[in-house]
Design brief:
Length: 291
Amino acid sequence: MSDAIVHLEEYQTGARHQAKLISSERITSNAAEVEVRELVLDVERPDFSFELGQCIGVMAPAAPGFGHAHHFRLYSVADLPERGASGLPRIKICVRRCSYIDEYSGEEFKGIASNYLCDRRPPDEITITGPFGLPFEVPDERDANLLLIGSGTGIAPFRALVKHIYRDVADWEGRIWLFYGARSGLEMLYMNDERDDFAQYYDQETFEAFKALSPRPAWNESIAWDQAIQDRAAELWEMLGGAKTYVYVAGLEPMLEELDTVFSGLAGSEEKWQRRKAELMAGRRWVELVY
């Protein structure tokens, strides 16, 4: 697991592969303001392989005037390695349709890669590259505790990780606590009426899932990490002090500052929390995948 921070422009995208879109399913409610789709892709290269927790790159056609032919973005693989009916390697990714408001002009711009992907329909061809990175790994200690903290499409790698542990790691004994944040219940992925993949683990003694929702989603207020985390303050702080606890964080970058504030309150001071976090990072037990 690398400690380095890698920027998009540093990824090697020369080796590209064609993938056929098998399905594109909306996994947020039609009533939700946010549209997130799960895309299933078959890579048209039989020897293509990837591992649990990796990402793939998507090469979307760039808008005119950008000076390059493709727009490169990374997406976490949302399921375990498998092969489709054709025998080709199959990949699932979550894509949120994005748009951005220019802070000066107020003009709205559509996200290039996200809108390109959300608009594709089977059997469209999509150019991918990678795979890249291994951000989240299953610890060697089978009694390790995992604190998984995700927001938005950051749930994708955790879906694959939890599925792998309960399907393939027969001797797993550690606790797995999943904290998932969204503006509203309608925007929660794999934990909503459309798709509730995590429901199959609720009867596992080692698994618990906690929802952190915005108190007033219509006002675009921040996710209520404080409530979800402070409700379990004593147990969490004890787990964070353990030598076999791993904290994996995935989602939008602003959540890091929000989590630092909440955990500082948990610790009693910012200084005490930063010391504990530094210990976790030094032991490679605090890992971030943010965008």
